[in-house]
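pasting for the record
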Amino acid sequence: GNAYSNLENYTQAIADYDKAIQLDPNYAYAYNSRGTIYGSLQNYNQAIADFYKAIQLDPNYAYAYFNRGTAYGESQNYTQAIVDFDKVIQLDPNNSSAYYSRGLTYGYLQNYNQAITDFNKTIQLDPNNSLAYNNRGITYFNLQNYTQAIADFDKVIQLNPNDGAAYQVRGFAYQMLGNNARAQADFAKAKSLGVK
């Protein structure tokens, strides 16, 4: 099932996970793995059901909580997603992905200060996580803290010089600060990297 999953042959992967569950109905890993496939297929209700079963079988299965939180997030059930990411962090306090995903979720809820707190923790645990800098920069932009947004996009660009979107948003931040020359330079660079 894992091999088929890696090959993106999801139908066969599900069939094998079904068989694993048939052979061992208490195999939490198989439910979690099948749920991941359903998530990839955007069948979030089925994914959540499988993650729920995996958690029922193994209440300390941090990865199943993380996956269920992600599925809830994709379903725009952000409150429940946060509950699951909270549980991951309780079980694994150094799980940078859980802080990052919870930060994104707080951002969707426009709880920007909490989002920044989570992105700060993500960066503390994973200093080269360009996505955390990027999303913290967007959050600072939403809070109209353009100077801090620029600092974060500087870091994104340092980590990934070909990130055209980072140049574009940094350009908007410079524009908001009235620095049109820097803004135009960033817009030109973003366009050269394929950003429209």
